[in-house]
């Protein structure tokens, strides 16, 4: 499992989410409290939107707490929309290309969770990626595959439907060739305008996920774990939800992956 | 392109090939003389056979000349059979998982060369990898794909035939979807007993390749570029050859990739 | 030796200096034309000033051309004042803490050149660093020592005098304990307001250094090598000069290191 | 704090200490049980003696558990004498040069513990290093300084006395300029023949330290934490002890740092 945090709103320094809060993402990398792997030290990454359509991307393989470049970057860069992730590998190698977020064009994507037995159907997952998107396949994670499959299913046109297709296809592979739990997923993705978030699992252990509107920041934070213990107004994202965060509003609906049966 | 060196014979310190000769592999990483990219600084790797059936593997992303771990390792480790590689990327990212050699079980493999337009048929190349070998697909290079395709074609049973199949299949993809030059390859591979080497290209620019028996070392060196300028007895491996080096003998034959036509 | 580039003016994307010009700093890392070491691949770094008094700092040990984080960062970050450096080690280890620029508080500093025989008087150079500044001594280079000695000599009050003192003290050590050439230096430093540049050597081989005002950018570039071959209006900084670049003006004077004789 | 393990005896694969035991050093890097910092993920290192007088050295900045090079190396290299360390920084940067063990000539050294307020007297500690040994000062840790001071005090002639001098000098600095606790230290060092170990603190919280003779391996293991929970015969090293391990014997005596008063 992993921990992540995302933000959409008036521009803030990345450190206001990543490193300054009492239970910031970097603190969670050292001692997460709401998941089975308290240490998330197998690399990290941030994707942020600035003046360009495509996001910036910074990823490295050391623990987030020990990288001076990260510390400097989050203290300098101010952004209205960013994704940040600390990784605890579920098996795949620790390498930059396996660190979240992943990006392609204007899209960014990150994932906390897993597809059970992924190693046994990795090749089949890769086959689901559309030919013209395969150039973006740089690492070996289930998460990157999920993202690229979703891109091919039409993230640009209908993000929710594309994610429902992609999760459905991967879940079908996991059911056919993998092991339980077939899917556990808390995902955040963005096209540079909106922040899309989903929480879903095929069993009843969906990864923890919370969101909160900050009046002082005039922005949304969506996080694996609340950033401050004394903020009582974090809302839990219900399992089986898809959320669309806009500048000042959020729309939450049911997330229903396509129920697919694969031909043997 | 890249540069590489391999050794089979009485155990020697890796540094006797990697760093001590006047035109050692590390020197070639700074200033190769027989290829178009004189600087080969996009990572490096060594695979060596010791007491176990599986080889050791050490790879990193900095230039070979600047890594103190490498310098220390090649001064300590003595081996009867090893592969060493310095990389100049032809496009794929600089990451440990894209550095040569690649290993799977007792096999090790490295490659200098390229498949033209590989990015446009990467997914098709991945599909050629056998399902049970896909767990070894960690990076994104054409070279790793070639190795894993060859494993699936029976490296264990008949190395030459397996390589002829694998190169043939990849060449067919390159001809169908890629760009010229379709194949340029100097490969070394080993099962821990013998050292197999091939030099081939679909045009008339096969990567440079030489070999030499050393009486003082009682061993074979096979290299992209001769290690000493005053050793006049380096033999060029002819383009279109497959060589099998044993403890004291070498058998050289024609290398003929399968001529395949792919269905559209 | 190394190569570097600095900018002061209207905010531009870092890539406009670092990676986009025909002979950009990254190109110079692969093939510098005006110094004896064409390849500058022993790490790199950038320091940039944004909304805060202290600069951001990003440094890593791979060649500048192969780091995707750097590529992304220079395409996202826009700055009115920044320093960028690619390193060719003159002996010290390749490590992040030995990469330029160095920073302390609001100051940033980078250096191309060397102090002859520095290894033989490193400890004596460290002793010159003021006690309260020693916390900033993270690596082992002569360049970082020079910067910290200069800070202790009053960079805040009088940058030129502080650099003349610091270079003078280091040169005295080199003359007493080192080897020729005693000093070769092209330095850039900044307090977040002005850009200070010096070119000096104790022999007649000062590192190359040029500057140019760009009307289109409304800013100054100071570089080891001109960024475009078709821009004829690059001015050479004369050896033995100290330059103070302001928003639209430059003041150039003689740089005379203190002539010190050390007690044995 | 950190965790470490050392071995002297009949040659074994490094993995027999580093990664295979139920509470191996790598396990301790993820969940140490006898120190206040359960996670020791700020880099790691191994120094091992082979055929040469000088030890091999492999260090890197990621967590020990996530480095495939380390996993491969400890499975290939067999040694009669080695030191292995996982680091939890007490403030100094995570960099290879700050990772233990440190080596100089035939000596290797590692340390678990700290000198209180070291940042406030770092420069004074550096001044204690002998001029001709200063070339080995590559990082910024108190541990490396302690090692180099001890080398200058005569490790070659009398290891215990040299360590008593070095610890005494550093402790005097800590008492004069630092903060409590002034010294906490569990150190292992070797000249390639014997394994020297000390456990000491200026308060009553010396870092945990145990040793055990293995009949099956015919060797000594000295460790921060016992490697197997079902081995009841681990002996605690008493605080204030200096141990000299030979092939089959150990000599344990009192460790009394020199009581020095520094002139103001």
Automatic annotation (TrEMBL), chains A, B, C, D:
SUPFAM superfamilies on file: N-terminal nucleophile aminohydrolases (Ntn hydrolases)
KW Mitochondrion (keyword) present: no
UniProt KW Hydrolase keyword: no
Gene3D superfamilies hit by this protein: Glutamine Phosphoribosylpyrophosphate, subunit 1, domain 1
Domain of life where this protein originates: Bacteria
Keywords of the record: Glutamine amidotransferase
InterPro entries linked to this entry: EgtC-like, Gamma-glu_amide_hydrolase, GATase_2_dom, Ntn_hydrolases_N
Entry-linked CDD domains: YafJ
Location of the Glutamine amidotransferase type-2 domain: 2-264
PANTHER family: GLUTAMINE AMIDOTRANSFERASE DUG3-RELATED
Protein's UniProt name: Class II glutamine amidotransferase
